[in-house]
Amino acid sequence: MEDWAEIRRLHRAEQMGIKAIARHMGVARNTVREAVRSDVPPRYERTRKGSMVDAVESQVVELLREFPQMPATVIAERVGWSGGMTVLRDRVAELRPLFVPPDPCQRTAYRPGELAQFDLWQPDVLIPVGHGQAEKLWVIVGAMGFSKFLAGWMIPSREDHDVLGGHLELLRQFRAVPRMAVWDQEGAIGQWHGPRMVFTEAFQAFKGTLGMGARLCLRADPETKGIIERNNGYLETSFLPGRRFADVADFNRQLTAWLIKANHRIHATTKVRPAEAACEDRGAMLGFPAVLPDTSWRFSTRLPRDHYVRVATNDYSVNPRFVGRRVEVKVTLDEVIATCEGTEVARHRRCLARHQSLLAPDHARVLRAMRAETRAAEAFPAEVEVRDLSVYDRIAGVA
Questions:
Q1: Quick count: other Cβ atoms within 10 Å of Cβ 176?
Q2: How many CB atoms lie within 10 A of CB 99?
Q3: Using CA atoms in the order 70, 76, 79, 83, what is the torsion angle rounded to 10 degrees?
Q4: Residue 177: helix, strand or coil by DSSP?
Q5: Is 211 helix (H, G, I), strand (E, B) or coil?
Q6: Where are the beta strands (DSSP E) in the chain?
């Protein structure tokens, strides 16, 4: 490359002849002639060696022409391939695009209020959850299609009630309900069953209460919700690095503050601020209904003698005076609440650590009072009248 450049310089700039350049550079005259004639730098190309696959390439092409999606393993069987699979797979991968219809991706424009995209993102960071434990938790993220307004909230788990509770929190951040929600095939949302989208019963109730439509993405089709996929990368690179979190509440506080700044930046695609464009989005969205969907997990149980109820792996205390009675338990994103016939008998901050027993201070005081009452009853037993047994003798006529 250096010789070629120098030959060209001597010939064009110094006006030296072929023989003079050859003597000066110490190269053959034919080499000088080739360099002078060539307008592009010389490039070394290794001569392509033959491959074992060349012998069966025509058969592979015929199979792919008729069956473009045929797996390489099946092709190997059909052509009687006895060599290594790696080299055959590479050749099939090289040939297949010639017979598969193109699948171009395009930039899609959305009308105001038309839809919002949602996803679950798991930050690669351990969040302290108390009792010396830490977990990698999930964040539900959502973005409006037209304005690209971004919202997010960390949730305790991927269970139905937590995902839908986080979904409702994102709609509160949107301050409106999109006409269509686009989701991946999440266990809490729904799955494709053949040609049909089948939503979970919990999500059906959720979107039905809001009057919101929903659509599931096909597998291996990230372009369907490219807005939120790009925002996940944005969170990874712009929000997460260099941050430390005390707990879930601290994560949500920091995320909320960062989202305010992110939504006021000039968006790279729309060239407007998402927070400003969101006004037009909200104007075309649906309003909230008078009664919001109940996303809490509810169950009923009879309070056992130890006066605890179990939620996930943790035990939460209940007022011990209600032992033996049926209590209704309600689990939200933040709290565990128990009631008995409309009376609140327990309220705990939800614990995200595992295998913990949580005793409320007022329940401990009630328990001590009940034990004191029991000891008092044992120390001072009630007086019982002793009947004169001769009364029975007189009744029976016995002298």
A1: 19
A2: 15
A3: 150
A4: strand
A5: coil
A6: 116-121, 127-130, 133-135, 138-144, 150-155, 180-183, 190-193, 196-199, 213-216, 297-302, 308-311, 314-317, 326-331, 335-340, 343-349, 357-358
Q: How far apart are CA 327 and CA 330, in angstroms?
A: 10
Longest dimension (CA), the chain: 161
Which residues contact residue 154 at a Cβ distance below 8 angstroms, ignoring those fewer than 6 apart?
Answer: 127, 137, 138, 139, 166, 248, 251, 252, 255
Residue pair 317/359 in contact by the 8 Å Cβ criterion: yes
Query: Which of 338, 150, 296 has its CA nearest to residue 235?
Result: 150
Q: pLDDT tens digit string along 224-268?
A: 778 888 999 999 999 999 899 999 999 999 999 999 999 999 998
Residue whose pair of structure tokens reads 């009072």 in the numeric block: 369
pTM exceeding 0.90 = no
β-pair partners for 213: 180
User: Using CB atoms within 10 A of its CB, is residue 278 exposed (0-12), middle (13-18) or buried (19+)?
Assistant: buried
Tens digit of each residue's pLDDT (9 = 90 or more) over 293-310: 999 999 999 999 999 999
Measured distance CA(200)–CA(170) in Å, rounded:
20
